[in-house]
Design brief:
This protein is of the alpha/beta class. It has two domains: about 1-235, P-loop containing nucleotide triphosphate hydrolases (Rossmann fold), CATH 3.40.50; about 240-495, P-loop containing nucleotide triphosphate hydrolases (Rossmann fold). Helices cover about 35% and strands about 25% of the residues. A hairpin with a 2-residue loop joins strand 17 and strand 18. The longest helix is centred in the first third of the chain and has 20 residues, at about 105-125. The termini are far apart.
Length: about 500
């Protein structure tokens, strides 16, 4: 009895999670979406998942030929073979012959009746446990009216309910996208959408519109079609992911930086590093990643803005051998193409690093590149909020970089996420004694007190070197400070 009540897996990675385990057996479901959104691929995976469990499946196609379906399956490395079967429903020869078409009687009556009869015959012959009907647009066109179409769908539903089969009907929305007849009849409705950004690859997403008597994960979920089928990335809900960990203070190798940070960075917190281009944001964040590996932990770096080979070369010149750490398996470095990546897929990659690879330090460099993967800034804030909350609750320490517009003077950020981060480190250029210099300060820290001074720092062959607090300057953060006395800290750093 338990085996009968067990839900039918869709065979689509991520979709069963959204549906709380899969499809309730013996019910009729609708998967709708415009052509190219992945309906046929999902339906094929549904039947293949059943075949793996020894369940007979039947693909009834009214819109594609059997040859086309088999070729499509072969492109993913699949084969439609026992216990699955394909039934290609083509019009009888009498309906294709113009001389034999009815003139007084409506030919659509004969076509619809013949279509239904042949569907029932195919079901009786194969006795499938899983059924796919592709597509309802053809049946809607044959019905010609909403009333006849609804009656036809209801007759199919009642017939399938007697057989106990789990049925997935596909609708490509080409005949009437406003017809919601099947929505009220179906036990569950899944909608697929395709978005075309101004630049980059198309984006696909999925939403469950209805699932009777069953909780499901609402909202939009990104999906991709790749060789091997459709993969869905369930929308991340941070409240569902909590783990116990010790909130210890993680110290860096720099005494001055630790003092500036009030002792260090707390585990399970997020740090935002702000500054214009060239101030060392990436280097500072990578320093924390390297030190995490030195503590015996794993770290992950997601790079949006720089080519990975160039990053390795540049970091090595500053005393950080990232390539060697990557080869050891303790540092995961992944280059991300924002134009080809959906935000849900990026969140999934981060989750895999934390949950499967046990990564405890995550670097995102930078949010400027991450923003390019977002339709609008508001969604970026929501995505980052959930992602940071998830990482914090998993005990992962996160470092984010944001490149500000401009070099000196008034700095502006393309996106304001300072209120999301637990710690905010500000890097600035300033001019003093005829030279362009760099300054670092901590402007926010939720977890503990921090030093409220401004320190100059240098980038050299051994990484970042901080000096003593600048006490005889004012206006450093504006970029053009005034010297109110001989600053000993400035003199010390010179030597």
């Amino acid at each position: 009895m338990e085996e009968i009540q067990k839900k039918a897996s869709t065979g689509v990675e991520g979709l069963d999670d959204i549906l709380s385990g899969g499809l309730q057996r013996g019910r009729l479901y609708l998967v709708e979406g415009s052509p190219g959104t992945g309906k046929t691929t999902i339906a094929s995976q549904f039947l293949l998942a059943g075949a793996e469990a020894g369940e007979r499946g039947l693909y009834i196609t009214l819109s594609e030929t059997e040859e086309e379906l088999r070729e499509s399956a072969a492109s993913h490395g699949w084969k439609f073979e026992e216990p699955n079967a394909i039934f290609e429903l083509v019009p009888p020869e009498s309906l294709l012959d113009e001389d034999q078409q009815q003139s007084l009687l409506y030919s659509s009556d004969l076509e619809l009746g013949e279509t239904t009869k042949r569907i029932f015959e195919a079901i009786e012959k194969h006795k499938p446990i899983r059924v796919v009907i592709d597509s309802l647009s053809e049946i809607r066109l044959l019905a010609q009216s909403s009333l006849r179409y609804r009656r036809q769908v209801l007759s199919l539903k009642h017939y399938f309910s007697r057989t106990g089969a789990t049925v997935v009907m596909l609708d490509d929305l080409t005949s009437d996208s406003h017809d919601k007849t099947v929505h009220s009849v179906a036990h569950g409705v899944i909608r697929l959408d395709e978005l075309a950004p101004d630049y980059g690859a198309e984006r696909r997403r999925l939403r469950v519109l209805k699932y009777r008597g069953q909780n499901f994960r609402g909202g939009y979920h990104d999906l991709i079609i790749k060789t091997g089928g459709v993969q869905v990335f369930p929308r991340l809900v941070s409240a569902e992911h909590r783990s116990k960990f010790k909130r210890e203070t993680l110290k860096s190798n720099s005494t001055e930086l630790n003092t500036l940070l009030g002792g260090g960075i707390e585990r399970g917190s997020s740090t935002l590093i702000l500054g214009p281009a060239g101030t060392g944001k990436s280097l500072l964040s990578l320093t924390f990643a390297v030190q995490a590996v030195e503590r015996g932990e794993k770290a992950a770096v997601f790079i949006f803005d720089e080519e990975i080979g160039l990053l390795f070369q540049r970091a090595k010149g500053l005393g950080l051998d990232l390539e060697q750490l990557q080869k050891s398996g303790n540092l995961l470095v992944e280059q991300v193409d924002a134009a080809e990546l959906a935000p849900g897929e990026f969140a999934h990659r981060v989750r895999v690093c934390v949950e499967q690879h046990k990564v405890r330090t995550v670097i995102v460099d930078s949010l400027n590149g991450y923003q390019a993967a977002m339709p609008e800034e508001k969604q970026l804030i929501l995505h980052m909020h959930e992602l940071l909350q998830f990482l914090n609750r998993q005990g992962a320490t996160t470092f984010l970089t944001v490149a500000q517009h401009g070099l000196v003077g008034d700095m502006r950020s393309p996106v304001d996420v300072t209120y999301l981060a637990d710690t905010v480190i500000l890097l600035r250029y300033f001019e003093a004694v005829g030279r362009v210099r760099r300054a670092i300060s901590v402007i926010k820290k939720r977890t503990s007190a921090h030093e409220d001074t401004i320190r100059e720092y240098r980038i050299g062959q051994k990484g970042i070197n901080l000096g003593e607090p600048l006490t005889n300057f004012q206006g450093v953060l504006r970029g053009v400070p005034e010297m109110v006395g001989i600053d000993k800290a400035l003199m010390d750093l010179e030597t």
